[in-house]
Write a structure and sequence with these properties.
This protein starts with a strand and ends in an 8-residue tail after the last strand. The protein has 152 residues and is of the alpha/beta class. It has a seven-stranded mixed sheet, covered by helices on one side. The protein contains two helices and seven strands.
Length: 152
C-alpha cells in the first residue's frame, strides 16, 4: 500500500508505504509464542520539512491503519531509531507503544561515528486484538537481537 499527500501543484509532499504480512506457516510449528500473525507494517513514512507539523503524518498513518483494519489485521507495527524522539513521540500520540528494543537494528550510522543504533519495535492494536495481546506496557525493557525479530 502506498498513500501520498500532494500540495496544490500536485507535487508529492508526504507518503506512507506499508503492507499486511504474517509469518510463514512453518513458524506455527515452532509454537504459538513464535508466530507473528496477520498484521500491518509501516515500512516508511516521510513528510517534506516545509509540510511538517500540519498533521499529514497522522492522516497518512490513519489511512494505512484503516486499510489494515479492512484486511482484518491484528495490529500495526513499525521500527524507529531510539534516537528519533520526535517520531517516537508522534507515534505514541497516535496510539503506538514500544513493544521491544532491537539491538543494533540500524547499521547505516548516519552520525558518522562508525556505530550501529538500536530500534524500537512499536505497535498498536487494531480492533481484532480486543485483548491487546500483541502490545506490552514495558517494551523499552525487552531487548532482542535483529536475528530474533521474527522469533520473539
Amino acid at each position: 500500500m502506498f498513500i501520498v499527500a500532494e500540495n496544490l501543484k500536485g507535487q508529492i509532499v508526504a507518503y506512507v508505504m506499508g503492507k499486511v504480512e504474517e509469518d510463514p506457516d512453518y513458524v506455527k510449528l515452532l509454537g504459538a509464542d513464535k508466530y507473528l500473525p496477520w498484521h500491518g507494517h509501516v515500512t516508511c513514512l516521510t513528510v517534506a520539512p516545509q509540510y511538517r507539523q500540519m498533521g499529514l503524518a497522522k492522516t497518512l498513518t490513519a489511512r494505512l491503519d484503516q486499510a489494515c483494519e479492512q484486511e482484518n489485521a491484528w495490529f500495526m507495527d513499525l521500527f524507529v531509531r531510539v534516537s528519533n524522539k520526535t517520531a517516537i513521540n508522534m507515534y505514541k500520540g497516535m496510539g503506538y507503544s514500544v513493544y521491544r528494543r532491537v539491538i543494533d537494528y540500524y547499521s547505516d550510522d548516519p552520525t558518522g561515528n562508525g556505530t550501529s543504533e538500536d530500534a524500537f519495535d512499536m505497535r498498536k492494536s487494531l480492533s481484532r486484538d480486543r485483548s491487546q495481546s500483541y502490545i506490552r506496557e514495558d517494551g523499552e525493557h525487552h531487548s532482542i537481537n535483529p536475528e530474533d525479530i521474527y522469533h520473539p
